C-alpha cells in the first residue's frame, strides 16, 4: 500500500512529503548520534490531523516520531525505525491567555522566545530556559529545565494540563486549571519527560510568572571549583532569591573569551542572576557578597542594565556553539548528569580529571543550583579512537552520578544515548515503566527505541 498517498488523502498533499532534503533535516538532532532518515515527514495543523495520522499509523504499525526543532541532545527525535517524522511546527499558536490566573494555553510548536514575546505585553514570562529556542512541546517531552530551574522549577513544575493523542487515537487531558489536585494519578508527570513514547502532545496549559521588578546579574570568580560549589550551597542555605546559578570552568571561560571577544579571568566562575524588588534585592546581594567573600571569591562584577545582562547570558547560552565553531570538523558531545549538591564538587573534579585523561578538548559547566552539570567534549566522529574515548568518558561520568544517588540525565532526556542506564538507575521500577508503555502503546509505534 502507498502510505504516502493514503495519508495525503487523509490530510492535504502539502502536509505530507518525501522530499529528500526535508527527510534529511528530520534525520538528526544537535547531538553526536548517528542520523537516520524517516520515510516521510508530516506537518499537522490541528489536533484532528494528529489523530488521523496516529489512527492510520496504528492500523498499519508505522512508527511515529514527534519532531519540534531538532534541538535535542540524546537522539530523542531521530527516527531510527523510519516511519513518520511528525513535525509540529505548524501548530504554533497561543490559544488562550489567562493573565489573572497566571496561565497560558499553547500549541506544541510554539518556541520559547515566541511565547515570551507574546507574554511580555501582559507583564508575564515563561520561566524555563534551556538555552536553545526550543518548542514548548519538545521541552515538555524531555522535561527540559536549564538556567532558571533553581528558582522557578523544571518543565514538569510548569505544566497544569496537556492534551495528548494516544497510540489508539484517543485524545485525553492529563490535568486541569487548578493549582493543585489530589484527584487520580498524576498523568501530567507521566507524560512530561516521556519523549513521545506514550503519545503526542497537542496542547499545553502552562504556569507563567510576573516579570520581576528588578533583575541583577553577577559574575564571581573563585580559586578552585570546590569553593565555587561551596558558595552555591551557602547562597541557597541563606534563602537568597537567586534565579540563575551557573558554574563555568576556566576552559569554558577561555572559549567564551575567544568567541565573544571578552577578557574574563581564566578561573572557575559563577554566573548569577537575582530577581526581586529593588530594596530587598539590594540587601540580599550585600549578604551574598559577604558569603562569597568568606569562601575566597577573588572578584565579583555586577550587571544591572538589560544590555549587559543579555551579553552575559548570551555568552553562557552560546557556549556550546562557541566550542563547535572553534573546533571545525568535530561534533559536540554533551553529558548531562545531576547529583545531590553535596556530591557536586567531587563530581565536577572527577569530570575534569576524566576529560584530561582522554586527551579530548572539553570543559565543564552546569546549572549547579540544582546539582545538574555538563561536560562539553569535542569529538571527531571519523576517528574511532576519539569516539570510543568520548563514550568511555560519558559512562564514567554517568556511573559516578548513579553511585551517589544521582541520575543519568538531568534535563536532556533518555533518547537513545541513555537507554542502557535505565535498568541500573530505576531497578524494578523500570519494569513498571515498560508495562505502562506496553499498555498505552501495545504495537510499539510511538517513538520506538527511545527510553525503552
Automatic annotation (TrEMBL):
An example molecular function term from Gene Ontology annotations: D-lactate dehydrogenase (NAD+) activity
UniProt-listed GO biological process terms: lactate catabolic process
Family per similarity comment: Belongs to the FAD-binding oxidoreductase/transferase type 4 family.
Region feature (Disordered): 1-30
Keywords attached to this entry: FAD, Flavoprotein, Oxidoreductase, Transit peptide
Domain (FAD-binding PCMH-type) ranges: 34-211
Domain of life, per lineage: Bacteria
Ranges annotated as biased composition (Basic and acidic residues): 1-12
KW Transit peptide (keyword) present: yes
InterPro entries hit by this protein: FAD-bd_oxidored_4_C (IPR004113), FAD-bd_PCMH (IPR016166), FAD-bd_PCMH-like_sf (IPR036318), FAD-bd_PCMH_sub2 (IPR016169), FAD-linked_Oxase-like_C (IPR016164), Oxid_FAD_bind_N (IPR006094), Vanillyl_alc_oxidase_C-sub2 (IPR016171)
Annotated organism of origin: Alkalihalophilus pseudofirmus (strain ATCC BAA-2126 / JCM 17055 / OF4) (Bacillus pseudofirmus)
Top-level class of the enzyme under EC nomenclature: oxidoreductase
Pfam families associated with the record: FAD-oxidase_C, FAD_binding_4
EC number: 1.1.2.4
Protein name (record): D-lactate dehydrogenase (cytochrome)
Cofactor field: FAD
Amino acid at each position: 500500500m502507498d502510505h504516502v498517498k493514503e495519508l495525503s488523502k487523509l490530510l492535504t498533499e502539502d502536509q505530507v512529503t518525501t522530499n529528500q532534503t526535508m527527510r534529511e533535516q528530520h534525520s538528526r538532532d544537535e547531538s553526536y548520534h548517528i542520523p537516520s532518515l524517516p520515510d516521510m515527514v508530516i506537518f499537522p495543523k490541528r489536533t484532528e490531523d494528529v489523530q488521523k495520522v496516529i489512527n492510520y499509523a496504528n492500523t498499519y504499525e508505522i512508527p511515529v516520531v514527534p519532531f519540534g526543532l531538532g534541538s535535542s541532545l540524546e537522539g530523542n527525535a531521530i527516527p531510527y525505525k523510519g516511519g513518520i517524522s511528525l513535525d509540529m511546527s505548524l501548530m504554533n499558536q497561543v490559544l488562550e491567555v489567562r493573565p489573572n490566573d497566571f496561565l497560558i494555553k499553547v500549541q506544541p510548536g510554539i518556541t520559547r522566545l515566541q511565547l515570551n514575546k507574546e507574554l511580555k505585553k501582559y507583564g508575564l514570562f515563561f520561566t524555563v530556559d534551556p538555552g536553545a529556542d526550543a518548542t514548548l512541546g519538545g521541552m515538555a517531552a524531555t522535561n527540559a529545565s536549564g538556567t532558571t530551574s533553581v528558582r522557578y522549577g523544571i518543565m514538569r513544575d510548569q505544566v497544569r494540563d496537556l492534551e495528548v493523542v494516544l497510540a489508539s487515537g484517543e485524545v485525553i487531558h492529563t490535568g486541569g486549571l487548578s493549582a493543585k489536585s489530589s484527584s487520580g494519578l498524576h498523568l501530567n508527570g507521566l507524560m512530561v519527560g516521556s519523549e513521545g513514547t506514550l503519545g503526542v502532545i497537542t496542547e499545553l496549559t502552562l504556569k507563567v510568572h510576573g516579570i520581576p521588578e528588578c533583575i541583577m546579574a553577577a559574575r564571581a570568580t573563585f580559586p578552585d571549583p570546590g569553593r565555587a560549589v561551596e558558595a552555591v550551597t551557602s547562597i541557597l542555605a541563606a534563602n537568597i532569591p537567586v534565579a540563575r546559578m551557573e558554574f563555568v570552568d576556566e576552559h569554558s571561560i577561555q572559549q567564551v573569551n575567544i568567541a565573544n571577544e571578552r577578557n574574563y579571568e581564566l578561573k572557575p566562575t559563577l554566573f548569577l542572576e537575582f530577581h526581586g524588588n529593588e530594596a530587598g534585592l539590594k540587601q540580599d546581594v550585600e549578604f551574598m557578597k559577604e558569603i562569597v567573600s568568606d569562601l575566597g571569591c577573588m572578584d565579583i562584577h555586577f550587571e544591572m542594565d538589560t544590555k549587559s545582562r543579555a551579553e552575559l547570558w548570551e555568552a553562557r547560552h552560546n557556549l556550546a556553539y562557541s566550542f563547535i565553531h572553534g573546533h571545525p570538523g568535530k561534533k559536540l558531545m554533551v553529558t548531562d548528569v545531576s547529583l545531590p549538591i553535596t556530591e557536586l564538587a567531587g563530581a565536577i573534579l572527577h569530570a575534569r580529571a576524566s576529560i584530561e585523561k582522554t586527551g579530548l578538548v572539553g570543559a565543564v559547566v552546569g546549572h549547579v543550583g540544582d546539582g545538574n552539570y555538563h561536560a562539553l567534549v569535542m569529538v571527531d566522529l571519523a576517528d574511532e579512537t576519539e569516539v570510543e574515548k568520548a563514550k568511555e568518558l560519558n559512562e564514567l561520568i554517568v556511573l559516578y552520578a548513579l553511585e551517589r544517588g544521582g541520575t543519568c540525565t538531568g534535563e536532556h532526556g533518555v533518547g537513545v544515548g541513555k537507554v542502557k542506564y535505565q535498568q541500573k538507575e530505576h531497578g524494578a521500577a523500570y519494569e513498571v515503566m515498560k508495562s505502562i508503555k506496553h499498555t498505552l502503546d501495545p504495537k510499539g509505534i510511538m517513538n520506538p527505541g527511545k527510553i525503552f
